[in-house]
Design goal:
about 290 residues
Length: about 290
């Protein structure tokens, strides 16, 4: 019975089938531990293991072409996952109050999902790491301002992407928009989520560290929790600037964080016997003797 249920589910929804099987197996393992059942019937060999494959990556030119092929009211929804690395639910969960035009940032506080029941649900981001504030690359800001002026109501809680009923746009609408755009650019292999994967790949190419990529992408691996403390807001702005330069064809490596000059001089002094005098110049201890 479990085998038939799992195979039927997985034929229609691969990832959902594996996720559902893992959840059922975990629940029944608890039932076994509590003495409610004698044996866990979830014994399908290889079931519940997600087979991850290498996702395709778009080029900067392909994303730009997709944006041009998209109606104005939806263009921002393509730019945000690619250049700000947002998940689909995070894009749909944005409201006017989440956008800070003065500082060029967006705040991710909520997500919109549509489970198999067909009813959209507004909730927190995927994990605690998903709640974050991100710097928006400079070349995306004009589209963001234009979208707010033309398509978003003035209330602070107005949705950036709205359905006909006035609520948040449903995911299927966004998927249809992207399907038309990807067909236009000849990349039908690209799913909407691949725009986020593409953006994180670009960020890595710009020189972002692992901790900075995890912070920007809102990844929630428990072992990496402490790493987020080292990804500062200033560094996030530097990543956004590097991404914007990538869009114009100029790739500039991220500059290293300047080290403390006094600490650097002390290390040099210990190594070669030099010191810095009151005038700021380096002198040898041998000369001073």
């Amino acid at each position: 019975m479990v085998r038939a249920w799992y195979m039927d589910m997985r034929q229609r929804f691969v990832t959902t089938g594996d996720d559902a099987y893992r959840m059922l197996r975990a629940c029944l393992n608890t039932a076994v531990s509590d003495g409610l059942i004698a044996r866990n019937p979830c014994q399908v060999r290889g079931a519940g293991f997600t087979r991850s494959v290498e996702r395709p990556v778009a080029t900067v030119a392909e994303v730009a072409a997709a944006v041009e092929a998209t109606p104005d009211c939806y263009r921002l929804a393509i730019l945000l996952p690619a250049w700000c690395q947002l998940r689909r639910g995070e894009v749909l969960g944005l409201q006017r109050r989440d956008v800070d035009l003065l500082h060029g940032t967006i705040r991710i506080d909520r997500s919109v999902v549509r489970p198999m029941t067909g009813i959209s649900v507004v909730g927190p981001p995927k994990s605690s790491a998903g709640a974050r504030t991100l710097a928006v690359p400079a070349h995306v800001m004009p589209t963001l301002r234009d979208h707010l002026e033309r398509y978003v109501r003035p209330e602070s809680n107005a949705w950036l992407f709205t359905s006909e009923s006035g609520g948040p746009m449903v995911p299927v609408t966004l998927n249809r928009v992207w399907q038309r755009a990807r067909k236009t650019i000849g990349r039908t292999d690209l799913h909407y989520h691949d725009l986020r994967h593409t953006g994180l790949t670009w960020a890595a190419a710009s020189g972002a560290s692992i901790a900075e990529l995890m912070r920007r992408g809102g990844h929630a691996h428990p072992a990496a929790a402490l790493r987020y403390q080292h990804a500062t807001d200033n560094r996030d702005h530097a990543i956004a600037a590097a991404l914007s330069e990538l869009a114009t064809g100029r790739v500039t490596p991220l500059r290293a964080i300047p080290e403390d000059r006094s600490a650097r001089d002390r290390a040099r002094s210990a190594h070669d016997g030099t010191s810095r005098g009151p005038d700021g110049r380096l002198s040898s201890r041998k000369n001073q003797a």
